[in-house]
From TrEMBL:
This is SARP family transcriptional regulator. InterPro entries: AfsR-DnrI-RedD_regulator (IPR051677), Sig_transdc_resp-reg_C-effctor (IPR016032), TPR-like_helical_dom_sf (IPR011990), WH-like_DNA-bd_sf (IPR036388). It comes from Rhizobium indigoferae. Transmembrane segments: none annotated. It comes from the Bacteria. Keywords: Plasmid. SUPFAM superfamilies: C-terminal effector domain of the bipartite response regulators, TPR-like.
Length: 651
C-alpha cells in the first residue's frame, strides 16, 4: 500500500479543483505516479515528511538484492555475488516483473510477451522452465521470486533497482549513457513492442523531471496502434462468424450494408448555433460537438452524420439510414459566461424530445475545459439510448438495439440478466462484429468472477482476455472498449500500469464518459489509493447524475469512501445504490463493514445477514480466497475488520 504524508490541491481535466492526499503526476504520467509502489517519486514516509529524505532499502536489514536494468542486465545478492540467470528469456522475465506495478504479472501476460509464437501448452512449459532456472540460480534465496497458478511476482521489498537510484539523483537523460536492458535479444515481436515502450517511458521520465499540479492523462508514446495484437498479449480469440470485408468489420465505413440487407442506424448532428461571439466560440463549439459525436459512436455504436453524406438512391434509403431525431448544440456567449444548450428533436417537424442546459465560464469553455457541461453529453447519450429502445419495434431496429439492450441487462447484475446480455451480444456479433460488443462480453466475465457465479473460473478469465484482445484489435480508439478492457486487466490480472494507460487513453478520447472515470476510480481502490478514488467517484456522480446506471456509480463511491475510512459517506452512497439493486453482494459487504465501524452493530448484522442470504457460505477466509483485489491494502484491512466486527465468521 502506498502511504501519503502531505496534501496538495490538484485539478480534474475540466477545471474542477479537488484536494487529494498523495503524489502528483510526474514525467511518466498517472500510471506511474499513482500506481507504481516502487517509485521513489511517490513513496514517502514519516522521515521524508520531516525532511530526512527518502528511505533507501539498502539500509533495511533483510538482505536486499540489486538489479541492474541500465546497460547489460544483472542481478547480484547482498554480498555482491552474481545470481543472474544465463537464459536471456529468464533475464527478460525478471526485468519485466521489476518494471511492472508491484512487481507482478499474470502467467498469461508473461507467456504472450516471451513465447507469442508458440502454442499455449508449449508457452506454458517454457515459462515453467524459465522459473525453474531462476530458482536454481537464486539458490537459498529462491523466495525472491514467487509464483502460483495465475501470477508471478518479485518481493520488491528485497530488491533495489539501479533505475530508482538514478531517479533519486535527478540526473537528466543526456547524462545517462547506458540503454535500458541493453543487449537483451529475445526475437519476439511482443517483447520488442514492450521494450520499445518501456524505453520511451524511461527517457520521458528523465527528460521531464518535474511534477505537474494538474490531474490529467499523459499523451501516449507514438506507436503503430494498427499493428496486429500490439495492445494486448497474444492469446486465442473466440471463433466468431464475420460478415463483410475486413475494412468494414474494422469500422472504416459507418454506412456499410450488413449481410441481411439493412443499413445501420445513423443519427443526424445538426450544425451548432453560436450567438454573441467570434471565431474563438466557433472553434470551441466544434470541439464540443466532436466530443458529442465521439460519445454517441463509441457508447451506442451508431453512426453520426451532419447531413452532408450521399448514398445511392437516397430517397429510397432515407428511412433505413437515419433515425427520426437529431441533436443540436446552441451556445450563447454573454460577457464572461456561456450558456450551453443541447436539444434532441424530431428531424422533420422539430418537436422537442429532450432539452438541457448548463452555464460555465467563457474562458474555461474556450480553453476546452468543459467542466460540468460534460455531463450534458453523458445525459444526451443516455436519452438517445432510451429513445432507441422505445423505437426498436421491428427486426432491423432490434438488431441495432441489441447492444443497448445487452448493456442495460448487464447492469441489472443478476445471473439470468448476465446470461441474457451475453446472448444478445453474441447475436449482435453475428449481425455485425464491433469492438464494444467484445469489450462488454469481456466485462461480463468480471461480474461472473467477482460475484462467484462459478466455482471454477479459470476458463472465464481466459475468455475475458480473449474478448478484450479482440475488442482492441477491432478499434483501438473506442473509448468505451478501452475503459472496459482496462477494468478487465485491473480487476482480473492486477496489471495496474497497463490498465491505467488504457483508462488515460479512454479519458483523452472521451472525457465525458462516466464509466471510464468510474472504473479508473476502482483501479485506485485496488492499488490502495482510496482517497484518489473518492475524488474520482465524486466527479463521476457529477457526470452520471441522470444515468440509468447511477446506482453503479454510487456503489463505487460507497466502496472508495469505506476504504478511505469515511464510513458516513460510504453508508449514504451505499444505501442509495441498494435501493436500485437490493441484492448486490458487493454493496452488502461494504455496508455491513461501515455500519460496524460506525458502531451501529444492529445495522451491520442486518446487512451481513442479507449478504449471507445472497452469497451462501460467506466467510472471511472464503472472501480472501476468492482473489478479490484490494484485500491486501490498508483499505482492505478496514473492510475485513468491519466485517469481523459485524459478526462474519473466519471460516
Amino acid at each position: 500500500m502506498l502511504q501519503f504524508d502531505y496534501r496538495k490541491s490538484i485539478d480534474l481535466p475540466f477545471g474542477i479543483p479537488i484536494s487529494l492526499p498523495g503524489c502528483l503526476p510526474g514525467a511518466a504520467g498517472m500510471a506511474d505516479w499513482s500506481l507504481d509502489a516502487r517509485s521513489s517519486t511517490c513513496q514517502t514516509s514519516a522521515s521524508e515528511a520531516t525532511g530526512a529524505g527518502p528511505v533507501d532499502r539498502m539500509k533495511k536489514g533483510h538482505d536486499p538484492f540489486r538489479m541492474f536494468l541500465l546497460g547489460p542486465f544483472a542481478l547480484v545478492d547482498a554480498e555482491g555475488r552474481s545470481v543472474t540467470p544465463k537464459s536471456k528469456k529468464a533475464q527478460a522475465l525478471l526485468a519485466m516483473l521489476a518494471l511492472s506495478a508491484r512487481g507482478s504479472r499474470s502467467r498469461i501476460w508473461l507467456r504472450d510477451k516471451l513465447w507469442s509464437d508458440r502454442s499455449d501448452d508449449q508457452a506454458a512449459a517454457s515459462l515453467r522452465q524459465a522459473l525453474l532456472d531462476i530458482h536454481k540460480t537464486l539458490g537459498s534465496a529462491r523466495d525472491l521470486l514467487i509464483a502460483d497458478k495465475n501470477t508471478v511476482w518479485l518481493d520488491m521489498d528485497r530488491l533495489v533497482l539501479d533505475t530508482e537510484l538514478v531517479v533519486r539523483t535527478n540526473r537528466s537523460a543526456d547524462q545517462i549513457t547506458d540503454e535500458l536492458l541493453e543487449g537483451i535479444d529475445i526475437r519476439d515481436p511482443e517483447f520488442e513492442d514492450w521494450l520499445t515502450l518501456e524505453r520511451q517511458n524511461w527517457y520521458s521520465r528523465l527528460n521531464v523531471g518535474e511534477v505537474h499540479d494538474v490531474f490529467e492523462p499523459r499523451q501516449q508514446p507514438s506507436r503503430d496502434i494498427a499493428k496486429h495484437s500490439a495492445l494486448l498479449p497474444l492469446t486465442g480469440a473466440p471463433d466468431v462468424p464475420r460478415h463483410g470485408k475486413p475494412a468494414e468489420i474494422a469500422g472504416s465505413n459507418p454506412y456499410r450494408q450488413p449481410a441481411d440487407g439493412d443499413w445501420q442506424w445513423v443519427m443526424v448532428l445538426q450544425p451548432p448555433i453560436v450567438v454573441g461571439v467570434g471565431e474563438g466560440g466557433q472553434i470551441a463549439a466544434t470541439r464540443f460537438q466532436n466530443l458529442i459525436a465521439k460519445a454517441i459512436t463509441d457508447g451506442l455504436a451508431i453512426g453520426v452524420s451532419d447531413l452532408s453524406f450521399t448514398l445511392p438512391d437516397i430517397e429510397e434509403s432515407e428511412q433505413r439510414i437515419s433515425l427520426p431525431i437529431c441533436l443540436q448544440l446552441r451556445l450563447t456567449f454573454d460577457g464572461d459566461m456561456v450558456m450551453i444548450e443541447l436539444v434532441m428533436k424530431h428531424l422533420i417537424n422539430n418537436r422537442i424530445h429532450w432539452l438541457s442546459s448548463q452555464a460555465i465560464s467563457r474562458t474555461q469553455f474556450e480553453r476546452g475545459e468543459f467542466g460540468t457541461a460534460a455531463a450534458l453529453i453523458s445525459q444526451a447519450v443516455d436519452q438517445l439510448a432510451y429513445f432507441l429502445e422505445t423505437q426498436a419495434n421491428d427486426r432491423r431496429l432490434s438488431q441495432d438495439g441489441l447492444l443497448i439492450d445487452a448493456v442495460n441487462a448487464i447492469f441489472r447484475l443478476s445471473r439470468s440478466d448476465l446470461d441474457n446480455a451475453e446472448r444478445r451480444l453474441e447475436e449482435q456479433i453475428q449481425y455485425q462484429p464491433r469492438s464494444s460488443t467484445f469489450a462488454w462480453l469481456s466485462f461480463i466475465r468480471t461480474f461472473q468472477v467477482g460475484q462467484r457465479f462459478n466455482a471454477l473460473d479459470a476458463h472465464l478469465i481466459e475468455e475475458a482476455q480473449a474478448y478484450a484482445r479482440k475488442a482492441l484489435e477491432l478499434d483501438p480508439q473506442n473509448s468505451v472498449s478501452l475503459a472496459l478492457v482496462g477494468h478487465v486487466h485491473s480487476f482480473l490480472f492486477g496489471e495496474y500500469d497497463y490498465a491505467a494507460n488504457l483508462f488515460e487513453k479512454s479519458i483523452r478520447l472521451n472525457p465525458a464518459l462516466p464509466l471510464s472515470w468510474d472504473l479508473y476510480a476502482m483501479l485506485h481502490c485496488y492499488a490502495g489509493q482510496p482517497d484518489k478514488a473518492v475524488a474520482m467517484a465524486r466527479w463521476v456522480q457529477e457526470l452520471g447524475v441522470y444515468s440509468p446506471h447511477k446506482y453503479y456509480f454510487d456503489t463505487t463511491k460507497c466502496i472508495a469512501a469505506a476504504l478511505a475510512g469515511d464510513h458516513a459517506a460510504a453508508i449514504a452512497a451505499g444505501e442509495e445504490a441498494l435501493r436500485a439493486r437490493p441484492n448486490f453482494n458487493s454493496l452488502l459487504r461494504y455496508l455491513a463493514s461501515s455500519h460496524a465501524h460506525s458502531n451501529n452493530l444492529g445495522g451491520a448484522r442486518h446487512y451481513l445477514q442479507r449478504l449471507q442470504a445472497v452469497e451462501g457460505g460467506f466467510s472471511i477466509n472464503a472472501f480472501r480466497g476468492s482473489g478479490y483485489p484490494l484485500l491486501d491494502t490498508g483499505g482492505g484491512q478496514i473492510l475485513i475488520d468491519g466485517l469481523l466486527k459485524a459478526g462474519a465468521k473466519l471460516r
